[in-house]
Amino acid sequence: MKTLAQKSFLGRIRAALPELHPAERRLGEFLCDFPGELASYDAQELARLANVSKATVSRFVRRLDYASYEEARRHAREEQRSGSRLFLSHPGDANPEASLVAAIAQGKANLDQTFTTITQAEIDALAGAILGARKVWIIGFRASHPLADYLQWQLIQVVETAISIPGGGETLGEHLASVRAEDCVVLFGLRRRVSEMDAVLDYLSASRAALAYITDEGVEIERRARWHMRCHTASTGPLFNHVSVMALCHLIVTRAIDLSGAAGRARLRRIEAANDGLGEL
Predict the structure, then answer these.
(1) Can you provide one Gene Ontology molecular function annotated for this UniProt record (predicted)?
(2) Distance between CA 51 and CA 91 in Å, rounded?
């Protein structure tokens, strides 16, 4: 069993809650709901937000086995960078109109910040690699899985070899064993990343396939990937904002269709003819 010092920031709070005095417990329950507040504010500001005294804050962090408030704050910041959605929540965010305006503004800011670092040349190069590949593998786990499915669903309009993996009941190894140097792989690595992500990157790097790695902005440049496209995902609420990721997917597919020329248009016509003939739509 982990000792208190071995637990995560939130794990320490949850473990200590039953033994805390009422004011300390009120602070602990507040931080369980809004842990990002300790990462963002000093002790006096946190005391005011939680409606407790500064002395209560000091006693609370010692109860959690931290030497000081700053040590607790550093631990909270480390956990914040890991991507826990709880760290995105803030008290007093209940005004619906203000929330809508803030969410729209944040989405626009994410788009602006994302496409200051991702160039048209990179998107064109990736689209060209996708069109020239023997097979296109699109990989996503957790929150990245529906984004991988979305990219595959759009790409299939022009690239019949695009596949999203792993599917239900499948292991990744069943597919990665077939990846070749003449293939293209699009790997989504958005927060929170699965523990085997590093091993997946190693395997794909060894395969020598053209690798595009799509992540959030918190990831250092990945040298094992030919393209590393970092999307800003900051949010005003408890879930990450993936507007910029969807925009990037749209641009990749649009450029692939543009660059496919006559062959791409012919496939689109065949798809439409098949849809008409089957009466599916």
Answers:
(1) DNA binding
(2) 12
Write the DSSP assignment of the chain as a string of letters: ---GGGS-HHHHHHHHGGGS-HHHHHHHHHHHH-THHHHHS-HHHHHHHHT--HHHHHHHHHHTT-SSHHHHHHHHHHHHHHT-GGGG--TT---HHHHHHHHHHHHHHHHHHHTTTS-HHHHHHHHHHHHH-S-EEEE--TTHHHHHHHHHHHHTTT-TTEEEE--TT--THHHHTT--TT-EEEEEEPSSPPTTHHHHHHHHHHHT-EEEEEEETTSPP-TTSSEEEEE----SSSS---HHHHHHHHHHHHHHHHHHHHHHHHHHHHHHHHHHHHT--
Residue 35: partners with Cβ closer than 8 Å, 6 or more residues away: 9, 10, 13, 76, 79, 80, 84, 86, 87
CB atoms < 10 A from the CB of 201, how many? 18
Q: What is the mean pLDDT of residues 134-146?
A: 94
Q: Which residues does residue 188 pair with via DSSP β-bridges, in sequence order?
A: 214
Block residue for tokens 């408030």: 69
**Is a pLDDT exceeding 60 seen at residue 91?**
no
pLDDT tens figures, 211-242: 999 999 888 899 999 999 999 988 777 778 89
Task: Let me know: does 16 contact 65? Beta carbons within 8 Å.
Answer: no
Domains of the chain: 4-88 (1.10.10.10), 107-278 (3.40.50.10490)
Question: pLDDT tens across 28-77, in order?
Answer: 888 877 776 676 678 888 888 888 999 999 999 999 999 998 898 888 77
